[in-house]
Amino acid sequence: MPSYSAPVKDMRFALEALADYDSIAALPGLEEATWDVVDAVLEEAGKVASDLLAPLNASGDAEGARLVDGKVRVAAGWKEAYDEVSAGGWLGLSGDPEYGGQGLPSTLGAAVTEMWQAANLAFSLNGLLTQGAMDAIERNGSPQQKEFYLPRMMTGEWTGTMNLTEPQAGSDLAAIRTRAVPEGDHYRITGQKIFITYGDHEMTENIVHLVLARTPDAPEGVKGISLFVVPKFLANADGSLGERNDLRCVSLEEKLGIHASPTAVMSFGDNGGAVGYLVGEENRGLEYMFVMMNRARFDVGLQGLAMAERAYQQALAYARDRVQGKPLGGQPGAAIVGHPDVRRMLLMMKSQIEAMRGLAYVCAANMDRAARAADPGDRAAAQARIEFLTPIVKGWGTEVGVELTSVGVQVHGGMGFIEETGAAQFYRDSRITTIYEGTSGIQANDLVFRKVLRDGGRVARDVIGAARDFANELAPTGGEDFATLRAALTDGVEAAQAATDWLLERGAADPLGPAAAAYSYLRLMGTVLGGHQMARAALAAARKLQDGDGDADFLRAKIATARFYASNVMPEARMRLAVIRDGADDIVGFSEDRF
Of 42-46, 323-327, 586-590, which one has max mean pLDDT? Predict the structure, then answer.
């Protein structure tokens, strides 16, 4: 079974040509994050991914996490790997140095996150939830909470979780019933939470749970939700651990994939109430938790990219090695990579992976600008782009990721259906990504209603306009390749603008139409904005070739891959527009009794 090799060359190209890393390194506080630092981080992170995490992926999947005598046992090697990652300072890579972080850009952090999720998705989920918990505490916690929890989480001494979902309340957080009763300087938490990733384990001495709950006099609905820090062990002022808090894992879910990631059912307050500490103000918990959720949604979008990359690497290696049949115009005994349909599948994987990576890294670059740009207007504009792009990175990225891991199985033929090859695990593991942290439908509705309709399409038009301007920039470039790119991007931009106009027109009178069209709009925007990044990559590659800068074969492959995307993927935008215009009413008009 081929292992994972971090695509450092592709990542570096995307950082330079698409995320405009030079401008990120010039932001206040990031001046020392030079290319020398970037190259060193990518190289070392790649070694951790390929040498430490990837070898544990299949064995962890086979062994899984287990609940034994009330304690969660992780797979063999997990604890040792976690200790090594923590000792390397990787968990605080982009964290605030005031709390023990390294203060490196989120843009670089996105590349490292992609690597580790591709190498071992189940393992990396622990760090993902911890990062989100740190973000929520850093932005909304008291100074004392920040000083107490963040250094211990940033170094990996403690981990974090997010406790939202309850048995009767899936995505509908207005229906949560977990209670928080005030008692002196703390609250007593009682209730049950489900689907809690790494809700319990023994890799660290303590776990910091962030829990949504209601106080006794809280208003109904989402306006009555508060956020609490509920540690597994109560801690003394010096950080030493005291007694076990009144919370426990009562079961672990049996899942389709990510078997080595313990997905816990957590019970709070079986013996009088778990001690919890209010974060921020009462009844603002959902607002605070969205800090964590939005970061997690971006990171899950990276999971779609990461799992597709892992599946592609294995499919390519198999196609180069497997001898089957005689390719048209080829010789007997040739590998299946010579068959046109196998090449089609590999190119569908390669091109869309590069499009996803480009869009995700651009989104991450905006995170750095929103946090650090000197001009308040620049920070606000970057934040608006993050909010618009996040549901696309998450929703489109994971939907495409699942499709491409399925294609990876197909490249293997019958052997892909056999667990021994490993291709099936990537498909199984990726399947959750379109569901957790908000399903694709939730991402689509967020994009349409909270982003496009709420501001009258302002940010959507800005993003589409940037793609249109770039398409016009391709006009004088010359050559058949760039004529194809320009035509495809121009057509995609027109489809995106027409779809946005349709949503704005229909949404003013009836929200059902936009709701029915939301998923297709999400897919359309992902396809077009991904195509924009592919065209940018091609132009950057062409300019490097002209200057004699870089690996000529690598750069020519960038142009050829962008052309394939333009010819074989971008036409989906026009199809999605037709579905939006003509199919939404069919969805709305189909009565429930006809199912």
Answer: 42-46
So what CATH class is 439-590?
Answer: mainly alpha
159-283 and 439-590 agree in CATH topology: no
With a cut of 80, say whether residue 476 has pLDDT above it: no
Identity of the amino acid at 232: K
Exposed (0-12), middle (13-18) or buried (19+): which is 474, by Cβ within 10 Å? buried
List, for residues 125-153, the tens digit of each pLDDT value: 999 999 999 999 999 999 999 999 999 99
CATH, domain range 8-154: 1.10.540.10
Is the pLDDT score of 477 beyond 60? no
> Catalytic one among 138, 282, 309, 437?
437
- Region of 335 (left: φ > 0; alpha: ψ -120 to 50; beta: rest) is beta
How many C-beta atoms lie closer than 10 Å to residue 582's C-beta? 9
390-416: average pLDDT: 98
Helix ranges, 239-284 (H): none
Buried b vs exposed e over 262-292: b needs ≥16 C-beta within 10 Å?
Answer: bbbbbbbbeeebbbbbbbbebbbbbebbebb
Q: Is 437 a catalytic residue?
A: yes
Fill in the DSSP letter of residue 548: T
What's the pTM value of the predicted model, to 2 decimals?
0.96
- Nearest C-alpha neighbor of 111 from the set 31, 49, 54, 58: 49
Q: What is the arithmetic mean of pLDDT over 80-94?
A: 95
The Cα–Cα gap between 90 and 92 comes to 5
Give every CB contact of residue 592 below 8 A, 6+ residues apart in sequence.
none
Q: Give yes or no for residue 478 having a pLDDT over 70.
A: no
CA distances from residue 413 to 137, 144, 246, 336, 352 in whole angstroms, order as listed: 47, 57, 51, 11, 21
Residue 189: strand pairing partners: 180, 274
Alpha carbon dihedral 210, 212, 217, 220, in 10-degree steps, equals: 160
Which one-letter amino acid corresponds to residue 91? L
In the chain, what are the domain boundaries? 8-154, 159-283, 439-590
Q: What is the mean pLDDT of the chain?
A: 95
- The DSSP element (H or E) to which 455 belongs, if any, is none
Q: Specify the pLDDT at position 289.
A: 84
The C-alpha R_g of the chain, in whole angstroms, comes to 24
How far does CA 358 lie from the centroid of its chain? Answer: 13
Return the pLDDT at 291.
78
Q: What is the pLDDT of residue 446?
A: 96
Which are the contacts of 39, defined by CB distance < 8 A and separation ≥ 6?
12
Evaluate whether 487 touches 498 at the Cβ level (below 8 Å).
no
Retrieve residue 114's tokens: 């992609």
For 436-465, how does the pLDDT look when each residue is reduced to its tens digit (9 = 90+)? 999 999 999 999 999 999 999 999 999 999
Residues 120 and 58: their CA atoms lie apart, in Å, by: 9
When the candidates are 2.40.50.140, 2.40.110.20, 3.40.630.10, 3.30.930.10, the CATH number that belongs to 159-283 is: 2.40.110.20
- In this prediction, residues 526-542 reach a mean pLDDT of 97
